[in-house]
Amino acid sequence: MASLLDSAAIITVGTALPLWRSHLRLDDWTVGAISASFTFALAVGALLGGRAADLLGRARTFSATVAFYAIGAGSLALAQSAPAVVAGAILLGAAAGADLPASIALVAERSPAPIRGRMVASTQVMWGIGILLATFMGLTVSTFGVTGIRMAFVTLALTALGTLAARRRVMRHADQDLPAEEPAPPHPQHRTGHHRRANRRLLALIAVFYVVYTLVSNTFGSFRTYFLVVVGDASQTTATAIGFGITILGLSGSLIFARIADGPWRGRVFPLGAASLVGAQVILAISGGEPLAAAILAFAMYALAFPYVGEGLYKVWSQEVIASDLRATFQGTTIALARTAAAAFALVTPTLLSWSASGLFWILAGAAAVASMIGWRITRLMTENLRDAESVR
User: Fold this and answer.
1) What are the chain's domains?
2) Confidence (pLDDT) at 147
């Protein structure tokens, strides 16, 4: 549910941007500031929430952050000015960022080792469901203008409160964090100096991969509707409907990835996903988003790619490489780095779109290519490490 709530928040804030822009008469820089504030708050929340989860308990941290999420969503529903929107975005973003590393680490430590990758990948399925539900909600209320988006944020707040109530009821006798049940991860982290150095290199590559990839994914998640409305001249309803159809594609891919997350196929499909990820940016760069069919094709290619080369893969890699008592800290730190970079980029994204949509997507094409090359290197290193570990046994 943390993954569902967080992705729904990102999409709902992104859907609200063009409505806030027209209703509050915002300029490009103010729109960028709202998106950047939300994204930077995600970063700070992830950094603090990840460390708190390892020190104070993952279940406790999860419950507290979901409560703050409800408050943040409610404040955005009531916001009547740009400063109020920024304040609400910061609160919602911080809560959403803090609950994610805690929830993923909780899933990993309580899952049997043979299906841990599948269970962690399933959080990405929930992430996709959150995107789907938020997009459907945005489509449903799109004809109501800013009143409709207020209704969407109220729904998020109520969903968070419902999640909190359900968890307290179901887990009344299991609120204390369970000790880590598994031995050290299967990769050879503690055997020799060579392996320790290899592991540090692998961790660094995973962190860099996620930071660079997030520049692409955050732009698509936060500015998809804005791009289609402001650059593509689509109506709010049309833009949201396009997003809904594309989200179904992405969710289907996430379901497939969850099935293959523990096996060799996740590495075999990576090159195809990487090619589609880069290709989507190139199409948008060449076309500038016009005609609308080119934009739809590019967004569809992105949706088909990201389940196999994106955040779900990063989550699985992290759980396989990091010792259980540091997983939330590592993920919180890397999420914070990625969201900070994404926040800085989001600040200038509306201005870049006004200047040149093609220029923006050439930048993203470069980022996608770099992330793909790093991801391919990580895939090779993971295979080599697993082979070394099996030879030691």
Assistant:
1) 2-175+189-392 (1.20.1250.20)
2) 92
